[in-house]
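Re: weekly structure request thread

Next one in the queue (322 aa):
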Amino acid sequence: MELSLSPLIYVAIFGAVLLVIQGLYLIIFGKSIEHDSKMNRRLELMQKGSTKRDVIEQLRKERSVHGSGSAVPLLGLLEERARKGNIAFSKQSLLLLMVGLSVFSFVMLTLATSTEPPIRLAMSVAFGFGGVFFWVSSKAKKRVGAIEEQLPEAIDLMVRSLRVGHPFGASLSIAADEVPDPLGTELGLIADEISYGRDASEALAEFAERVDLQDLRFLAVAVGIQQKSGGNLAEILDGLSKVVRSRFKLFRRVRAITAEAKWSGMFLSGFPIVAMLMIQMIKPDYYDDVKDTPLYLPLAIVVCVFLVINILYMRKMTDIKV
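Done, posted below.
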């Protein structure tokens, strides 16, 4: 029995694409741009001797790399994910990276496999564009999840500071110094902007829209209402902290309850792909008898379409909204 290593080569090339993206990102921008260190990036820049104004300008420049989005659906979705993940690559750089990695994948597929040129071209484009989109999406999901988890602790720090008499801007700055990235740098930048005269609720609302996080919108609304109508901000934020923790606890409970269904959906979606790859590895000539028939290509396209529909439908069924 002859084994084909082509599926493993495809997986290895896709993994190499992801490693190239991460390597280029770290080489060009450095580790600190990852926003996941114990010391937040704002404090690190200040320790290097930068003034507060210089730090504000640099951080605002970094977070304004990606605008409000593009009219092209896929490109707009990529920009939205890049904005959530605070990716330092610009839109043009990401597109150039997609093209470059597609060429890289085509060269690797040419050297490592004997696949026909049209198939190599299609797979290389899928690896290049899909690899960049997957990398950006994973960064965005990781960053938003970290901000969501750090937010209750940051609100508690603000509540303690407010109760001992600090103004809101100073309380925000204290919380920013204590909370690690990614939330620490964002709160510190907002505190600096407030000290230069920007409206607090406006800055928080802009941050909430940029990362698309409902709990941050609650914080912006609470601060805005207190500014307009007065009241005990410490008590308001203390109640908000309890609400955020309860929501986070409920989300985790829902994830635990639906975990079995999600894994079943992932298995049912991925099993046909795994079966096809195993058949290709164990018996590469399995489909040789039908490849030349006129119905082979149309039926293969129909199977792929149904497979995609199955994956999307299973994902929708297991995506529980709370």
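The longest helix spans residues 233-282. The chain has one domain: 6-317.
Next request, please.
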